Amino acid sequence: MGHSITSLNVVVLCPLLLPLLILLFLSPPPTSATNFPSIQAKKLINDLNLFPHQDINIVRDSDATIEPFSKKKIVEKKLRFLSLVGPDGISVEDLGHRAGYYPIQHSHAARMFYFFFKSRNSEKDPVVIWLSGGPGCSSELALFYENGPFKVANNMSLELNDYGWDKVSNLLYVDQPTGTGFSYSTDSRDVRHDETGVSNDLYDFLQAFFAEHPEYATNDFFITGESYAGHYIPALAARVRKGNKAKEGIHIKLKGFAIGDGLTDPGIQYKAYPDYALDMGIIQQADHDRINKVLVPACELAIKLCGTDGKIACAASFFVCNNIFISILSRAGDINYYDIRKKCEGSLCYDFSNVEKFLNRKPVREALGVGDIEFVSCSTTVYQAMLLDCMRNFEVGIPTLLEDGINMLIYVGEYDLMGNWLGNSRWVHAMKWSGQKEFGASPEVPFTVDDSEAGLLKTYGPLSFLKVHNAGHMVPMDQPKAALEMLKKWTQGTLSKSGADTENSVVEM
């Protein structure tokens, strides 16, 4: 079959062609029950030592103990966590942090849960929203283990995080899509299946948030996140730009968006898996050659068909392409695919269980105002619902944002296999925009923190790419000081300057 296939032919042949591709190309490892999305999602979730009681938060009206849905505005509570007292006797209440629900305007009955943390420096600092990936994993995982104001100790008390991103920004964490974390609906039709639904919900939330807090509406605004947020973030940035251009509501001062270890252009990134694995010594040359000969061409074709058909082809491409990853892991042994320096003991690559224990405690739930709503750390139902979205290319909308002068930062931990730096670097360099050649010709320079090289940085105009040393998939957890310095410099427009200058270095507070 040549490259001259027409769109009509692709649509007609997809239902027959893609199962054939699976049969022809996927040997070994064979397609098995363990490859199905629900089982794969549960394995990924359990690998983080997370065992949510429910797959998704779809509840009965009688179970919802917060404000009635008919109130189309933010319902917010000032946080009163009695278990946290800082080194100077500072309580959470003194910091002015809040949590709340927003009834999503264009939904049947969905409510989006969020945390808001005032900057420890100045209310005039930028507003930064954080989106976790999955798809379907709660942003509280990042809040308590990566870059939030505090962390959960083993005794279920809270400890202030010296490198929380609230030191340089007013910080928002949102549980999304609907059914994730504490976000819920009483109507299953509110489960989202694509970035249009996800980005519209987030845009509605931002409009409501800035209406409730007009004092922050004139601040610079940045979108951040990691992993599958490589899909969410460009979609939300484009939605904010569209809303601003059309003057749909409150103008949001979007200045930039940052993706950490993300999945943005699957066609390029999946092809990079065997190359990264070989370079890092995870697989042998013979394994690499076989994967490139058998599995990669099948993945490329499946993703191409996904871009044309968008339905059955996208579902099939998920199975086809994920066999590249599965094939690498079958040869790599018990490595932690989030950080290849580490081994997985059993299935527990990380232990994030404290977040579930903490957020399901009755005093904490009362402080948050969530009533009887269960906390769903990661939702397999949301994961499956977004299956057709997974293999879509979200690089395509980014050039327009760059041409508008909106800054983009791609940062990646050098030891992450899942969203590895090589695949991210390749799609960034392949992206067609007015500065493509100049960015490609720009030198890599050290990104320094405390006079030590913390990464390698490449910048041209609004585009920056940072490979972070000694970090895996979760850069703010592995290198918290470097991540905070990165955020501060990027939001201030000084990231391309040396991190060693004392004037711009992070000041301990």
TrEMBL record:
<keyword id="KW-0378">Hydrolase</keyword>
<keyword id="KW-0645">Protease</keyword>
<dbReference type="InterPro" id="IPR029058">
    <property type="entry name" value="AB_hydrolase_fold"/>
</dbReference>
<dbReference type="GO" id="GO:0006508">
    <property type="term" value="P:proteolysis"/>
</dbReference>
<dbReference type="GO" id="GO:0005773">
    <property type="term" value="C:vacuole"/>
</dbReference>
<comment type="function">
    <text>Probable carboxypeptidase.</text>
</comment>
<dbReference type="InterPro" id="IPR033124">
    <property type="entry name" value="Ser_caboxypep_his_AS"/>
</dbReference>
<keyword id="KW-0732">Signal</keyword>
<keyword id="KW-1015">Disulfide bond</keyword>
<dbReference type="InterPro" id="IPR018202">
    <property type="entry name" value="Ser_caboxypep_ser_AS"/>
</dbReference>
<dbReference type="InterPro" id="IPR001563">
    <property type="entry name" value="Peptidase_S10"/>
</dbReference>
<keyword id="KW-0121">Carboxypeptidase</keyword>
<keyword id="KW-0325">Glycoprotein</keyword>
<comment type="similarity">
    <text>Belongs to the peptidase S10 family.</text>
</comment>
<dbReference type="GO" id="GO:0004185">
    <property type="term" value="F:serine-type carboxypeptidase activity"/>
</dbReference>
<dbReference type="GO" id="GO:0005576">
    <property type="term" value="C:extracellular region"/>
</dbReference>
<feature type="signal peptide">
    <location>
        <begin position="1"/>
        <end position="33"/>
    </location>
</feature>
<keyword id="KW-0964">Secreted</keyword>
<dbReference type="Pfam" id="PF00450">
    <property type="entry name" value="Peptidase_S10"/>
</dbReference>
<protein>
    <recommendedName>
        <fullName>Carboxypeptidase</fullName>
        <ecNumber>3.4.16.-</ecNumber>
    </recommendedName>
</protein>
